[in-house]
Amino acid sequence: MTLLDDMRRELSERYERLKRGRVHAGKDNGQGPIMVIDEWETEASRIPRRCCENFCITKKPAREGNIWTMKEDERGVFGYEDVLFTRKATITGLEEKVPTAKPIVWMTDSPREYYAMWELVARTKPRRVLVGGLGLGILANLLSKRSDIDEVVVVEKSKCVIDLVKPYLHPKVKMIHGDFFKTASELSNKGEEYDTVILDIYTGKEDVEDVKIDVESVEDTFPESRVLAWKFQPELEEDISVIYAFREARKREA
Fold first, then answer.
1. Cα 3 from chain centroid?
2. 33, 56, 99, 126 — which has fewest CB within 10 A?
3. 72-119 pLDDT tens trace
4. Which CATH class is domain 117-253?
5. Per-domain residue ranges for the chain?
6. What is the pLDDT of residues 197-206, one digit of tens each?
């Protein structure tokens, strides 16, 4: 019996206990909170499978009984450690083909990523939002659902990603084709102001210190904006809290 066999048996037993009603209120008998999904559909589900040059919209199955992690660097999303699919589901993804390696998975609408997006949406200060990176358009569409957000401006450097996703965006979303940091500087020079700026340009494999440099650059460009970073927000949260506290103290002294 291998370790993999042991893991499969444990997951199978957890699923059977849930079906028999021995798992309740999303708790798996003390083994950690588990999110149960009977049906799965997101804003990205409507985007069809197709490619544009190196970028492809993918559709991959989550089978009945599959248990996927909800952890981001050992942190559970929305308080859950795992997610259980009780029925077959389809997960939509955005991948970029590269010549010398496996495709880069820029994002998917898996429960872990989807609800992590909601955590960013909850931290967003209204009313105007600037987003760097389009991905599957999930973040932009979720932001647009908030009645206190008037406009979501998204900067995306890939024309192909825009062509693949733009038809499925909310009317509140305005697209700009270009490099995010260059475009942000241009918008600032024109006097544009945003209540929140979100960097959604990372795969999660970048060095957090490099992300901090990006965040500081955006804060210099939009000093009155709240700046958030997809996939790195937990690591940045403490540093950002200190910065905002310092900024508010400076305002009170002025």
1. 32
2. 99
3. 666 778 778 889 998 999 999 999 999 888 899 999 999 999 998 998
4. alpha beta
5. 117-253
6. 999 988 777 8
